[in-house]
Design goal:
The protein is built from 19 helices and 14 strands. By secondary structure, it is of the alpha/beta class. It has a domain of 127 residues: Isoleucyl-tRNA Synthetase, Domain 1 (Orthogonal Bundle). The chain has a 6-stranded parallel beta sheet, sandwiched between helices. Strands 5-4-6-8 form a 4-stranded antiparallel beta sheet. It has a two-stranded antiparallel sheet with strand order 9-10. Strand 1, helix 1 and strand 2 form a beta-alpha-beta unit. 42% of the residues are buried. The chain binds zinc ion (ZN). Zinc ion (ZN) binds next to loops.
Length: 479
């Protein structure tokens, strides 16, 4: 039986257009999915949108729209990423979908049955940007450090709470697995967080104040004014199980669970602690692995409209092409740490590595191959073996390191052409010249194979050029 791999991104809120940080996450998850499929594993790759909560409710109100109508329009920008970023996902889940809503309600019932849900009157400071409560120690100058431009809201109501505190020991046990949260720094962070003791968190809102959420089961009989809806995180996290059929299609669920989750560093606690405790409470096994990426800054600063340093992934794709952005996100951006992204650096890398480096190598080799009828005589171009450093990097999500291996191959092939000059040699010693050109075509085929998870269209264009023995049209035009 084929090994099965279930991969998911987090679900972005639909209240703003897709940003470069989510493009990074989607492309990382896609490279992972393509790598596993190419290695003969069966893959289910999930992504989608988070459509409930105060942030979306407010945005819809500002626009004078019904929140569902607003979400239906906004989701189009996220669905468009499939084409723009060439994502190979199998499922796009929307948290307003019927099956997900029913799953979130069943999940609630399971946690309730475990005795983990209770009602409490409380007060707290809430960041609508994060859709999270903020303790005093998390604030900088009285504000959320991720959303310093937003006023914190004061919530003073009676809500349902989840017994997070009950799961401290089980979570700490989970973090003993070195691979459960990557990188190590994030695993240490969440372990420290859990070892300090966990505070139960609120999992509902008074519908009177914020109605845009899934109805809490059993609240139907209560007068509308006192009804509660689910806290957006409780609902949204459940998507990782509802996406694969839980609780209706258990055979499908068991086929895929547990999941490998890609998430940003602002999601570490929610994914690696809150969600894992919720799973334990509902009687489900924890996730398989949580892979955390950093933030992308621009010119050393946080991106913001007012600073004018926002990097728009769609604009880059429209100007430079999908694979150019995928290449940069997976090679120049760190898979785990914060990274800086400026258009100057992007353009420099595009011209130097893609237009000149890879693009030139493909034309040099395929031109010789075309003229001397080399690749048309190859019966099969098969990869001898995958470089172990590449394989190891791919399995541990170090996409930049895997790309370095490919770039070594590109440099080696370039050097070989310069040193042996097969285009001259073939005129004096046809056999020796053709032999070198043949080896170069094989090297190019290997490069194309290794590039597949990163730059699928480019890899395919190279493979087709080899198959048809022709010089392809330029892969990357100099900008
Ligand atoms: Zn915030």
């Amino acid at each position: 039986m084929k090994e099965r791999i279930y991969i998911t991104t987090t679900l972005p809120y639909v209240n703003a257009d897709p940003h470069i940080g989510f493009a990074l996450e989607a492309v990382q998850a896609d490279a992972c999915a393509r790598w596993h499929r190419g290695s003969g594993r069966e893959v289910f790759f999930n992504t989608g949108t988070d459509e409930h909560g105060q942030k979306i409710w407010k945005k819809a109100q500002e626009l004078g729209k019904d929140p569902q109508e607003y979400s239906n329009e906004a989701v189009i920008h996220f669905e468009a990423l499939k084409g723009k970023l060439n994502l190979s996902y199998d499922n796009f889940i929307r948290t307003t979908g019927h099956a997900h809503v029913a799953a979130a309600q069943e999940f609630w019932r399971r946690c309730d049955k475990s005795g983990d849900i209770y009602k409490k009157k409380y007060q707290l400071k809430y960041c609508v940007g994060c859709e999270l409560e903020k303790s005093a120690s998390e604030l900088v100058g009285g504000r959320c450090p991720i959303h310093p431009h937003m006023e914190l809201e004061l919530i003073d109501e009676e809500n349902y709470f989840f017994k997070f505190s009950k799961y401290q020991d089980q979570l700490l046990e989970l973090y003993k697995n070195d691979d459960f949260v990557l990188p190590e720094s994030r695993r240490n962070e969440v372990r420290n967080f859990a070892s300090q003791g966990l505070n139960d968190f609120s999992i509902s809102r008074l519908a009177e104040k914020m109605p845009w959420g899934i109805a809490v089961p059993g609240e139907e009989a209560i007068l509308p004014a006192g009804r509660q809806v689910m806290y957006v995180w409780f609902d949204a996290l459940v998507n990782y199980v509802s996406a694969i059929g839980w609780p209706e299609r258990m055979e499908e669920f068991e086929k895929w669970w547990p999941v490998i989750q890609f998430a940003g560093k602002d999601n570490t606690r929610q994914q690696a602690a809150m969600w894992q405790a919720m799973l334990l409470s509902a009687g489900l096994s924890p996730s398989r692995q949580i892979v955390i990426h950093g933030f992308i800054t621009s010119g050393g600063a946080k991106m913001s409209k007012s600073a004018g340093n926002v990097i728009d992934p769609i604009a880059i794709v429209d100007e430079y092409g999908t694979d150019a952005l995928r290449y940069y996100l997976l090679s120049a951006v760190s898979p785990f740490e914060d990274s800086d992204f400026t258009m100057e650096k992007f353009k420099e890398s595009y011209n130097g590595n893609l237009a000149n480096g890879l693009g030139n190598l493909v034309s040099r080799i395929m031109k010789m191959s075309e003229v001397y009828q080399v690749s048309s005589q190859l019966t099969e171009v098969r990869l001898q073996s995958i470089p172990p450093e590449y394989q190891c990097a791919m399995e541990s999500y170090r996409y930049n390191d895997a790309m370095d291996v490919i770039w070594e191959n590109i440099r080696d092939a370039d050097l070989r052409i310069t040193e042996t000059e097969p285009f001259k040699l073939v005129k004096t010693d046809a056999e020796a010249g053709k032999k070198i050109i043949t080896e170069l075509v094989h090297a190019l085929a290997e490069i194309a194979y290794l590039l597949t998870p990163f730059m699928p269209s480019t890899a395919e264009a190279i493979q087709n050029a080899i198959k048809e023995n022709r010089l392809p049209s330029p892969l990357f035009v100099r900008k």
